[in-house]
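ASSEMBLY PREDICTION REQUEST
Request ID: AP-0331
Submitted by: J.K., bench scientist
Number of chains: three
Total residues: 870
Priority: normal
Notes: Please return the full assembly, not individual chains.
Input sequences:
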Amino acid sequence: MMTAVSVAIDAVSITLILALAAFGLAIIFGLIGVINLGHGAMLTLGAYFTWATTAAGVPFLLAVVIAALGVGLIGLVLEHLVIRHFYDQPFETLLLTWGFFLISTEVIKIVFGTDFRNVTNPLPLAFHLGPVSVPAYRTAVAGFSLLLIGAAAFVLYRTTLGIKIRALIQNREMASLLGLDIGRTYKLVFATGALVAGLAGALISPMLSVDPYIGNIYLVRSFFVVTVGGLGELLGGTLIGAFFIGGAETIIALVSTQAFAQTIVFALAIVVLRFRPQGILGGR
Amino acid sequence: MTEILRTEQLTKRFQGLLANDGIDFALASGELRCVIGPNGAGKTTFISMISGHLPATAGSIWYRGERITELPVTARVRRGIVRKFQTPSVFDNLTVQENVELGVLASARRARDVRARIARVLELVRLEEAAETLAVNLSHGQRQWLEIGLLLANNAELLLLDEPTAGMTVEETAATGALVRQLIGELDVAAIIIEHDINFIRSLRAPITVLHLGRVLVEGSFDEIERNQEVREVYLGAE
Amino acid sequence: MRLTRVRLDQTDGTLRQPGRPRLLDGEAIAGTGVFLMLAALPAVAGGYPVYILPQYMLFGMLALSLGLLWGFVGVVSFGQAAFFALGAYTMGLAMQQTASPINPAYLGLAASLALGGALAGVIGYFLFSAGVRGAYFVIVTLALSIIVEQLAVSQSQITGGWNGMFIDRMSLTFGPLGEVSLYDDAPIYYVVLAVVAATFALLKWLSRATFGKLLVGIRENEDRLIALGVRTALYKTSAFALSGAIACLAGAFYGTHANFVAPSLAGVLFSTEVVVWVAIGGRGYLLGAFLGGVLVASLANYLSAIIPRYWQLALGVIFVLVIVFLKGGIAGAIAKLLAPRRRSPAR
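STATUS: Completed
Returned structure:
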């Protein structure tokens, strides 16, 4: 009984945290179709910025904000200098974002070294639900993830900006005929995706030891979360995809190693995509 | 004249909209037929069922005596039923010659006379001079001809052309008319052409089937159709 | 084609025939030159080059496997290293079967060819027959690299885990005619050269045959080919299977040459290095991919010795610059210089 409860809590928090990590990619890949292989690097940058600023004495929450903004800015620069010339060539953007990963990883290694870094947990408490002990920080991050998704839902479905973005996804040509500035909207979406990825990396950093490849753990996972959930289904898709990937991995890891669980889950995701390429929530 | 295509009571229903309502149609081998009608008459639906891109709701399609109603597109293509879509789709970054070569290779992988076939097709669609031009640099009309060339290279026996002169200049349209007549004459290929351009249809001098509201309204020669009272009403009324 | 009055293959004689393909095109000639030079090399430069070049040639072969996919089919694979490592591990396991009546090396080579081809074929068919788009395919190959690397680490009782696996040098046995040991550098150099050259020749021949042309057609406009009745999924699967087999075989030879294989050979980082090689060398040309593998890998090695902190950064920057400005890679740039008549090349 105790194990079942703690597993359930684990599954929920893992789902929400994975959804947070994947959300930036859901924005970029799902909304403007850029296969951002630099997504992991954006997470890593968020983590490192957080470490650097907290090590300099900045309070954690402020550090997170700075990290998110920093990565968002980097994303904006990347889009402006490079990505925006290649929107009609998906393979090239794929390679370019991978190039971004290569370069940023090396810069991180040069600036910060390759040792593991630790970001101090700002909330090293634990709740006690009966016999089960739940880390407070994880819960906070999971809760934040839910808030963020809710906020995104609000923007997408209740604001003018949201309408514009949804129009853009539906039909690019029509949207431009209707006076929508495509270039600016794409820029905004890309930068936002980067910002969210940086934010996720920042928030996740206290839970892991930070090294230059920390984001890559989430790279392929995020892609599967987004595609299994349904490309373009920003909210429900990300949550369902995260539940599938994260939840499945947790459950399988109970009976085998983490590595094996990940392998099985990847294989499962590939099978799901093969039979339902539009994802669980995606419609043709 | 042997019959190459026949439809019996061919029907297509889209969730309450009856796009094609029991169409009986017959085409002889080597025959050219124009299918015309106001917008929404069901012409493209009809062609799509013959090519296999739309499944039929009811009725049957017979090709050379074989019932093909349930066959997938690729099986019909292998039998020589090829369709040309409204927006030409060719291999933009390859030359005209390479395009046609792919058309030949797609159907006859081990053809010894590939080069000769390519030359012949280029001659038929009047693109020999443009053989080394990249397809992306062709005019719109030339792209349409190139696409027809691809279909011919692919051993087409029944061509389904959906508005082949759309977007063409007056000269290109006239040339297309001559091209089509020559193809039919020399190669014994049958064709169904959906068209709106009156001059083009007149120049083809081929029998016409008029569709209206998913049914066959009348069939006949160009002159007969032009004089037909019902047809005038349908066209004028629809405007 | 129903030909009644006029036959398709008859012209009236005045028509200009499309150009006859020459037996050897520029790339074949250049490639022959490269391999001849490689063959002559041990005579003029002993020692270290003769020792190390087979590894770079095998990297070139690995790059060829990617070049086939990327240049001809138009899909990038971030998983070629997975096949490479599988080949090496297979060879390692085979070479341990010292009691085998058949030369264990031959077993290893055959097994790695079969494994690479079968694995890639199954995955390829599974994905392509459902029309999985290129982008998703890339992600799957990325996942494949991760999976193989983790398997190599976790199945340590077979693979030696992080410590890696030692692999003996193989011998060529010719039944009653005797045996040639490949312990020394020169013999194995020539064996590897022969295998790599044969692979290049095979791919070159395929590229000019119907198979290669249809692959290019798939790359340029797959829907059009499908509408012409071509089963494109089968062609893509075959190309992937071939590329997997080649990468696996290259890995098998690499394993026995380097005497060692470790999980990092399977990983994402090495897989992406292969992509970098082919991007810089030239994705549209087999020779470009091959030389990309050989030269960029050696350049990376050289750079890592002289600027150990910054060489990977330099490589990353070069990679991005090549993608942005020199899409065809170096081979593409050279080809454009030599034959400017194509205004926008098909590569």
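REVIEWER COMMENTS: Chain B touches chain C through 53 residues (CB under 8 Å).
SIGN-OFF: pending second reviewer
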